[in-house]
């Protein structure tokens, strides 16, 4: 744990991670808050709620690179304050908007979502020494896992007890507070020897968006397709076994295993290639479909979950290493877009596999999606290595060829 203590001792890192956790927890809960509002507040169908959720998710996927580019040019504070202001306007208006206008407003709110995750990742890349960066990104991935375990369940519990419109306001307030808090901290996004935001040198896409970066983005997408699909497969499997009430326990076990795996991986002396971690995650996911009951599904979920946070943290580390300082915001925005797209497409993909086969087919589809992304990443990483731009650099800066 010495490595984690050193990361948290970096000036400004502990408060940044704390405030970022507030923002990310609220952001992971925003789709659920809108879902509960449409279903309970507007008394509409889950399909209608899914439309609003899809609109916000699409906005976030499209807006990430655009906001990242503005951060590269103007720095984080202006973007954080502007997006926080946009979130104030959206969430205050949610209980007053009819469904049609809510769809358009959700898309706009997604486009202007507070970039808490992207700013945190850039700050980690800028302020932590290379030897500590993997541990720092492991903490960041654990933070993300905790936000998913905390945010949506709190929204569900509160929406059942109080007005869903009030819950939506609370979620919006937390997003705004987190964004304003990060703006107040104004973390540095460039190291002392790197180009500052607004300077004239901005590398072209040809210089950095090569096979290595594309491989990292493909594997980010594949990882979240697998993870979101796994959640749906868990519910479907337990529903078929008439044990759906245990789904929350199984998902919680998966999350705890992911956090444990992230802590262990961040403390290892050397990293592993992203394609290898994602391959192992895919292979560990497929057999979960054979679990006959919820206790066995907990065991299978724990085995796969150990690899989830390490895979996500390695993707973030890879993107930070491959992105030149002048375009780091755009690169992390693309990473966020890839993650959001994977979460959005994972459930429909796995749901289709379940409808065409059996619930176990959902785990197979999720695992195969992860394996396909890992294979693509491996092939692209080989091409990148042959071009002398390796995908997986070692912490000391020397390349680790696939």
Overall description:
This protein has helices at 2-9, 13-41, 46-74, 76-93, 99-111, 116-127, 130-161, 164-185, 205-208, 211-240, 247-266, 274-285, 294-305, 308-322, 328-356, 359-386; strands at residues 392-393, 399-400. Helix content is 78%, strand content 1%. The protein is mostly helical. The chain has 16 helices and two strands. Strands 1-2 form a two-stranded antiparallel ribbon. Residues 388-402 have low confidence and may be disordered. It folds into two domains: 13-132 and 149-190; 206-397, Up-down Bundle (Growth Hormone, Chain: A), CATH 1.20.1250. The two termini are 29 Å apart. It is globular and about 60 Å long. It comes from Actinomadura barringtoniae. InterPro entries: MFS, MFS_trans_sf. This is MFS transporter. The chain crosses the membrane at residues 46-66, 100-119, 214-238, 244-265, 272-288, 360-380. Keywords: Membrane, Transmembrane, Transmembrane helix.
